[in-house]
Specification:
By secondary structure, the chain is an alpha/beta fold. The protein is about 40% helix and about 15% strand.
């Protein structure tokens, strides 16, 4: 689908001094960064929101009272519709529990489904807050390294089975699609995970925040939809924050069919004094899911184009560098290890000299890799890659 002319994915919004986490971290890492440079790190976008969302919120603010506000039936209906239409999963709105962000859900899910000292299995490399959710709640992390031989990452099911069979291992955290490797797990892979989860009676916390960012030739399958047993033992964490760049409205949710598990999860939120999400988030999500799907299609086209641009660049200038196939997410996973450059020097070159601000692989437990955010104007990406080539003498 061709995006409507009003959808502008080529104008960079300068977020300097706006409180943007991504841009402020760039200043911390790069010092005196020249004007016009945008970071390619944190997984959010530097575009204006979909105009449908902006217009809808503006109209909403004309009559909205910004007091204590609970969720509306329209929000739950929009989430239910999106799951049914986009992902072919029929859910009951009563399964939905709101929280400010998926990271909050990771912490609450781990606490709800395990006890202190329990083991929690995690496929690695992994999104850093997943590690935090395990270690900072007093659980033991059981790392199950993905097999990246050949560039496309695969699950070592023998290693996963061994991890889940360990004493007091009660949870598996599954990132689907996988951040940072870009894998979209197949039905066969998810079915085998479900089989192991049932065999070893573990709860699966499925972070599916990137579910809508899936590229041509691939299909995201919700883990909880694999079987009735999977549905009953899964905490599915979701949001529109990646699909529509809405992390700032702090509205995410867990979908939990199992009433006992859902009650335990909600007790964890209550123990933190949590009551409401952002009152504007209810309306923003509703608009995104009911009016802005064409904008998402435009974003997917941009990401696919930027993926091609990046791969062509690296093939020409850095043939020894490999990039994992991009099946889902807007995040490329790039292996720089064959350059033979020390990790600290690689970081210095990229941050201090090239001013190309990747998310460094060591934060995912994979030194020598870099994660590149493709959700940026193509011009910005091309300029960053040109700086990278210059600094490396390519």
């Amino acid at each position: 689908m061709t995006p409507a002319p009003e959808y502008d994915f080529e104008t960079l919004v300068d977020r300097t001094d706006t409180g943007s986490v991504k841009w402020e971290l760039m200043r911390e890492r790069g010092g005196d960064v020249p004007a016009g440079i945008a970071p390619l790190s944190t997984a959010d976008l530097d575009f204006l929101p979909a105009p449908e969302i902006t217009r809808g919120l503006r109209e909403h603010l004309e009559s909205a009272v910004l007091g204590y506000t609970g969720p509306t039936p329209a929000l739950f209906s929009a989430i239910q519709m999106w799951q049914a239409v986009r992902h072919r999963w029929a859910i009951d709105t009563g399964w939905i529990s709101l929280m400010p962000g998926v990271v909050t859900g990771l912490f609450a899910g781990v606490r709800a489904a395990s006890e202190e000292g329990d083991g929690v299995a995690l496929l690695t490399p992994a999104y850093p807050p997943m590690v935090d959710a395990i270690e900072k709640t007093g659980r033991r992390i059981i790392r199950v390294p993905l097999d990246g031989e050949g560039g496309r990452y695969r699950i070592d099911f023998a290693a996963l089975a061994d991890a889940l069979s360990g004493e007091d291992v009660s949870v598996l955290i599954l990132c689907s699609p996988h951040n940072p490797t870009g894998r979209v797990w197949t039905y066969t892979e998810l079915e085998e995970i479900a089989h192991l989860a049932r065999a070893h009676d573990v709860t699966v916390i499925a972070d599916e925040i990137h579910a809508d960012i899936v590229h041509k030739g691939f299909e995201h399958i919700l883990f909880a939809a694999i079987s009735e047993d999977a549905t009953s033992r899964t905490i599915t964490l979701s949001s529109a924050s990646k699909s529509f760049n809405l992390a700032g409205v702090q509205t995410s949710w867990a979908i939990i069919e199992n009433a006992e598990l859902r009650a335990a999860y909600e007790r964890e939120l209550e123990a933190w004094g949590f009551h409401f999400v952002n009152c504007l988030g209810y309306r923003a999500i509703e608009i995104a899911y009911t009016e802005a799907s064409d904008w998402l299609e435009g974003l997917l086209e941009l990401v696919a184009r930027n993926d091609r641009v990046s791969r062509e660049f690296f093939a020409e200038h850095f043939p020894e560098v490999s990039i994992a196939p991009l099946e889902g997410t807007f995040l490329q996973w790039i292996d720089f290890r064959k350059l033979g450059i020390d990790e600290c020097e690689l970081t210095r070159l990229h941050d201090q000299e090239a001013h190309v601000f990747f998310e460094h692989g060591r934060t995912f437990g994979a030194p020598g890799f870099e994660r590149l955010n493709l959700g940026t104007p193509t011009r910005v990406l091309e300029e960053a890659l040109a700086r990278l080539a210059e600094v490396h003498g390519r």
